[in-house]
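Entry 14. Ran structure prediction on the chain below.
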Amino acid sequence: MGKLISWVLFLGLLTITAWIWLGSDEAPTERSRGGAQAIAVSTAAVEQRDLSERLRFSGSLIAETRVELASRVTGRLDLLTVELGDAVVPGQPLARIDPEEFQLELARAQSELAVARATVNEAQAALQAADRDLGRARDLRAQGVSSQADLDAAETRRAAEEARLQLAFAQLEQRESSVQSAELRLSYTDLIAPESGPGPRLVAGRHVDPGSIVTANTPILTLVDIQPLRAVIHVPERDYSRLQVGQTVTVRTDAWPDRVFTGTIARLAPVFDEASRQARVEIRVPNPSEQLRPGMFIRSEIVIGQRTGVPAIPVAALTEREDRGGVFIVATGPEGSRVARFQELDGGVRDGDWIEAPGLAPGTRVVTLGQHLLTDDTAIQISETTP
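Output, structure tokens:
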């Protein structure tokens, strides 16, 4: 009996709840039949503005030049005179390979050169003696004192001494070359900062430590020029034709959010990457304060058009209806009420949050918030906070 009473009470409560729920759903419908309610919207007035058409791209900074200083000989690294971030000037000694082996090689080459010079002197003296012997042999043969065989022997000796002298000269040139090569290899033990641009180069990388054994072509230091820098961006096909060398570019970076740096387009790649369909563009960015650094992420803006005194509206006012772009303008409805009416619009130059609005008269109000709820002649109520 108790269970039956409980079930009856439960069903009754469920019926009352359903009746209340359905009643609450029907109430707005009935109220809506009494008349359309105005939609609350925000609006803004069409203004006359000076607009600049800008292209925006992101990219990275790279060094104008990057130099990998490598060892040109094999040996032990004795000394490094710079650290990461140090500025270096042309001609500054930066590192040294143990020169002892190369000094010995030079000394040996110089000794061999001295021997070659002595050999040349000896060969020259022998040739002079052979010339004298040949002269006497010719005189004696003319007098009939000596035989033709003696003259032939003297001529042979003279020819042999001449060949010996030529060989001595060749060996001398060889030894001189060996000395020059040894001197050059010895000079390679000192790494010197090469010529740079208008500013000093900075040490961007230190790859080995003193005491290490390095082989030829082993990178030891990386140097970069940071005056100026290059900003690299990639542009799609639709924007490529609007760029040209010499255009001014403004550059911003997160490292200096309050600074605006100015550069110029220096190079436009003549080809597009087949995968991305984008072309590389390089921007020369002066960096006299040395605040910028290679590797920084940058945002760039390029002004490609200027419009003066044109009607403009906030970008937020733009909307679409049936694949048509346009805006809702505030119009006068029955009995002076305010209604929204859709007007197609082909926007012109866009500058930040504003866009050119050809055909709209200054002072005309357009809906900037709530337009997704509107259709033509929808009654609207303008928010009091609307300027």
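Confidence is low (pLDDT under 50) at residues 1-5, 7-34. Will compare against last week's run tomorrow.
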